[in-house]
Amino acid sequence: MTSFILIFVLIVISGLIAVAGDWVGLKIGKKRITIFGLRPHYTAIFITIVTGILITAFTISILSIASIDVRTALFGMEELKEKLFNLSREVQVQNLQLSKAQKDLEARTVQLKDLEDKYDQLSQDIIEKTNQLDELIIAKDALIVEKDSLSKDVEELNATIKALYSGIAYIREGDVIFGPDEQIAINIVQGGKSIQEIREQLIIFLNTTSNMALEMGAKKDERTNQVFIISQQEFEDMIQRIHESSEEIIVRLLSSINVIAGEPIVAHFNLMENKLIFKINEEILSEEIELVEDVKEIEKQLFLLLRKVNILAVKDGIIPDPKSSFVGTISAMNFYQTIRNIIESETEVKVSIISSQDTWSVGPLKVKMEVSPANILDKSSTEKI
């Protein structure tokens, strides 16, 4: 509203100044007054020009006094432009900073999203690990129970071993040292050597075995001063056979009759080639085992399977131990792990008896059990089979 009043006043005043100027010009024209030596006509023009100047000056003065914006537009334009330029630069800088801040915000947002994803993943891992821990605790309790059961089995086995040792001791306390055709000692001689080398090796073997027999209760023959009574012809024939052979020969010294303590040993030799019976990792026998929960029943089935392997190995040519009639050993850890695998299976399984190494006629046969489809790799202490 004030602006309209100001404009109205300026119009009125300008009109009055114009009228006054025209009136002055008219009077001067009539009186033919001159200014600065000018002709009256030009004097009137001059007065008109001065009147216009006065109108403009008065208008600018009034506007400058009445309006700060007019004063700024007339006298502070350069300063205003400089301030505007500086403000524009500041705005650009602020825009750049804002853009950078927005990019940083986007990057932080992405990082925050990654951290949230990692947090969710870690939370899930914690839940899974907690569940696994619960399962391990349950498994631990089950293993403790199984350990107690195995401890009882070990006690029973120890009792059985003691009983077996007791039986062996009873035999040793008797008069009979060796039964008929019982193996006294065994040795391996490489065929193809000279007769003298073979004879010397066999004499060393007989001397070593004689010392063992003396410790067991045998006595030397008074006539020959030897522990063993052996046919000289048989001894020479044996040397000749070994000499003519190109293979390894197993020499077994067997008692011919019952050997009584305090008497010399009537003995004879048995020769056989030391053949490769089973190759390493060769499957000897496999059978399906019924799924039962009774550990002792599973042990019974496995022992029966091992007994069949023992019979098969002897039939194929492996020489059994003369005292126990066993041909080899199996890892106790492998045996009990096989039992565990059978118990944990949900269906009937096939148990395979595998040769652990190349096995020759002289033995011993070392085997391992594998449950299909499990792969048993444990190898530790051994158990007679």
Task: Describe the protein.
The chain is an alpha+beta fold and 385 residues long. It has 3 domains: 74 residues, no CATH class; 99 residues; 108 residues. It is built from 8 helices and 13 strands. The strands form 4 sheets. A 5-stranded mixed beta sheet has the order 8-10-12-9-13. A 4-stranded mixed beta sheet has the order 2-4-6-3. Helix 7 packs across helix 8. The longest helix has 97 residues. The radius of gyration is 62 Å and the shape is rod-shaped. The C terminus is likely disordered.
What is the number of beta strands?
A: 13
What is the terminal-to-terminal distance?
A: 122 Å
Identify low-pLDDT runs: 161-174, 374-384
Q: Mean pLDDT score, rounded?
A: 80
Helix content: 55-70%
- Arrangement of strands in the largest sheet: 8-10-12-9-13
Write down the Rg.
Answer: 62 Å
Per-chain topology:
Elements: H1 2-31, H2 40-66, H3 68-75, H4 77-173, E1 176-178, E2 183-190, H5 195-216, E3 228-229, H6 232-244, E4 248-255, E5 259-260, E6 265-273, E7 276-278, E8 283-289, H7 295-316, E9 328-331, H8 332-344, E10 349-355, E11 359-360, E12 365-371, E13 382-384
Parallel strand pairs: 3-6, 9-12
Antiparallel strand pairs: 1-5, 2-4, 4-6, 7-11, 8-10, 9-13, 10-12
